[in-house]
Design brief:
Low-confidence stretches: 1-28
Number of strands: 9
Amino acid sequence: MLISKAPRRIAVALASAALGLTLLTGCGDDVSCGLDQCTVTIQRETNASVDVLGVEAKFISADDSTVTLEVAGQQVQLTTGQQPVDVGGLQVSLESVTTDAVKVKVSQ
C-alpha cells in the first residue's frame, strides 16, 4: 500500500513535532532546550544534579578546564573544547566552567 505524498508529509511533520515536545518536556529550571539539544547548568556543590532528557547528570568534581560528571550512572570526564562524548545514549560536551557552576551541552 502506497501513501500519497501529502499524508506522508503530514505524518513526518507530526512525528517531528512529537519528538520536539518529548525533548522539551525533559527540561527543568537549570536546563535550556531547543529541538535537538539542551544546555544544562549544574551548580558546583556536593551532590548537585539535574535531570535532562530523562537522564540524571550529577556534579562530581572540577578544576579550571576539566569536569567529572556522573551521567546515566556512568562517570565521564569532560574538557572545555573537547568533542562530545557518547554516554547513556546522549552526546555530552562541556561548554564552560566557572567558580559557581558548570555548563554542559546535551543532545540526542
